[in-house]
Design a protein that fits this description.
The chain is mainly α and 98 residues long. It has one domain. Helix 1 packs parallel to helix 3 and helix 2 packs antiparallel against helix 3. It is elongated, with a radius of gyration of 15 Å.
């Protein structure tokens, strides 16, 4: 029996999607200089987490063999989003330290 990861991916992706919106908003409100790269990577993370949310939702709704494939793709897209979010967080941290 295979574990169904789609509900966990959907929940966590939605939470991290909200976090990315908070990061993007705080960058805009604080008017950080030279934040274009941070804006772009945050936007990329938003796109990846939104894609992961949609794919995991579709995986939950489907009952056929495509469900497992959608879940695997959502998992990979989610992992990519985590990496981009980590890099964005490191850029924000180093920009604040300067």
């Amino acid at each position: 029996m295979q574990k169904n990861k789609s509900s966990h991916i959907l929940n966590t992706s939605a939470n991290l999607l909200g976090l990315c919106f908070v990061v993007l908003t705080s960058i805009k409100v604080s008017k950080m200089q030279d934040s274009t790269l941070i804006d772009e990577t945050t936007a990329l993370a938003i796109l990846l987490f939104m894609t992961s949310c949609i794919l995991s939702f579709l995986s939950i709704r489907r009952k056929d063999g495509i469900s497992e494939r959608l879940e695997k793709i959502a998992d990979l897209v989610f992992l990519s989003g985590l990496i981009v979010l980590f890099l964005t967080t490191m850029m924000v941290t180093f920009n604040v330290i300067k």
